[in-house]
Amino acid sequence: MDLLQRLGISQPIFVAPMAGTSTPELAAAVSNAGGFGALGLGASNAETAKQAILKTQQLTDQPFQVNFFCHQPTAYDAEKAQQWINYMRPHFEEFDAEVPNQLNEIYQSFISNDELLQVVLDTKPKAVSFHFGLPTAEQISALKQAGIITMVTVTQLSEAYLAQQAGIDVLIAQGVEAGGHRGTFNPSCDAGLTTLDLVIILNQYFDLPIVAAGGIMTGEDIRLYLELGASAAQLGTAFVQCKESAANDAYRELLFEQPITQITDNISGRPARGLLNAWHQFVDLPDRPSHAGYPYTYDLAKQLHAVASKQDEQGFGAYWAGSNVANIRRLDAKELMEKLVQELQ
Ligand SMILES: Cc1cc2nc3c(=O)[nH]c(=O)nc-3n(C[C@H](O)[C@H](O)[C@H](O)COP(=O)(O)O)c2cc1C
């Protein structure tokens, strides 16, 4: 059975799960238009994850996926954290804000949180995908027993081998053009493959269905990846501007104004691609100290953005976007799906 039949969808189009930007409304609109809706739940706890899934199930009877982060939890290094706080201190002072004295683990890994697994087992979405690595063997086996399709982001061959060995059903092939966080299992082992090269190479070595992700903005782009052997395409940036997303006004507008993106690991503690802004330039100065690790670095970034945006300064936001953001179109989710389907044909 091909992937679309297995998922129960009619179009080879996935909206990317996007923590902080996904909403039940966006997921449902994509699923109702024949694509595969998604909820990015990497920043959610068990209760908020459950509420988002239940809400989506109220808005659509079509299938959708949910997504979690599987980073290897890193211990808090108080000395490194302090150095990073000191480096950011002038910016907090610029806004007369209190400088934090410690950083928090704002995102728990799915690996160490079986409450999230239980939510998935209880609510039974069609599929669950993972970013930054694999869940445990026990978690995969529980999902399989419940009949839930498992998917994982891979950025290189070695990660795809690990996913295959673990019994994962679908490979989300994320090229270096992708907006948001690189899904690399180990953030310091990034092969930097383009979406095109990654899809070609995965197709040569694996029989698993492949979903192309990274820099895909139009139906013509989707068709190219299908011709290269992908079963579907996953688009993030193209959907961020939709009225159904949770993006704030500043983010929405900047997507149309600023076409240059850059990868940095100094905003969150892991490499991620976003619109190049003043803050990117500051955090990437060659003489910076090393960041405080993931997700502690992100905690400081979010606190600084909150302080700055309260005073109408939006330049400290992490505006994740892929390298083809220049091709973005202003359409709501239903219109964008219709446009993509029309271009694809
Ligand atoms: C705002 C934003 C947030 C993202 N958050 C997640 C996430 O929570 N989980 C995930 O697996 N991928 C996430 N991604 C990456 C996407 O899954 C996908 O790889 C990427 O959007 C594809 O590239 P594109 O943005 O050029 O379409 C995010 C991407 C964006 C743009």
Word description of this protein:
The structure is a single chain. With 345 residues, the protein is of the alpha/beta class. The protein has a domain of 226 residues: Aldolase class I (TIM Barrel), CATH 3.20.20. The strands form 2 sheets. It has an 8-stranded parallel β-sheet with strand order 1-9-8-6-5-4-3-2. α2 runs parallel beside α3, α3 packs parallel to α5 and α9 crosses α14. The longest helix is centred in the first third of the chain and has 17 residues. The structure holds flavin mononucleotide. The site of flavin mononucleotide (FMN) has 29 residues, from β9 and α10. Flavin mononucleotide (FMN) binds next to β9 and α10.
Write the layout of secondary structure elements.
Blueprint: H1 3-7, E1 13-15, H2 24-32, E2 37-40, H3 46-59, E3 64-69, H4 78-94, H5 114-123, E4 127-131, H6 137-145, E5 149-154, H7 157-166, E6 170-174, E7 180-181, H8 195-205, E8 210-213, H9 219-227, E9 232-235, H10 237-240, H11 249-257, E10 261-264, E11 272-275, H12 278-283, H13 296-310, H14 333-344
Parallel strand pairs: 1-9, 2-3, 3-4, 4-5, 5-6, 6-8, 8-9
Antiparallel strand pairs: 7-11, 10-11
Catalytic activity: 3 propionate 3-nitronate + 3 O2 + H2O = 3 3-oxopropanoate + 2 nitrate + nitrite + H2O2 + 3 H(+)
GO molecular function: nitronate monooxygenase activity; nucleotide binding
Family: Belongs to the nitronate monooxygenase family. NMO class I subfamily.
Number of helices: 14
What do we call the CATH homologous superfamily of the domain at 3-71 and 107-246 and 328-344?
Answer: Aldolase class I
Described by strand count, sense and barrel closure, the largest sheet is: 8 strands, parallel
Task: Give the CA-based shape.
Answer: globular
Our estimate of the beta-strand percent is 5-15%
The SS-based structural class is: alpha/beta
The top-level CATH class of the domain at 3-71 and 107-246 and 328-344 is Alpha Beta
Give a count of the beta strands, DSSP E runs of length 2 or more. Answer: 11
Name the helix and strand elements from N-terminus to C-terminus, one letter apiece: HEHEHEHHEHEHEEHEHEHHEEHHH
Q: Distance between the terminal alpha carbons, to the nearest Å?
A: 22 Å
Could you name the CATH topology of the domain at 3-71 and 107-246 and 328-344? TIM Barrel
Mean pLDDT across every amino acid position:
97
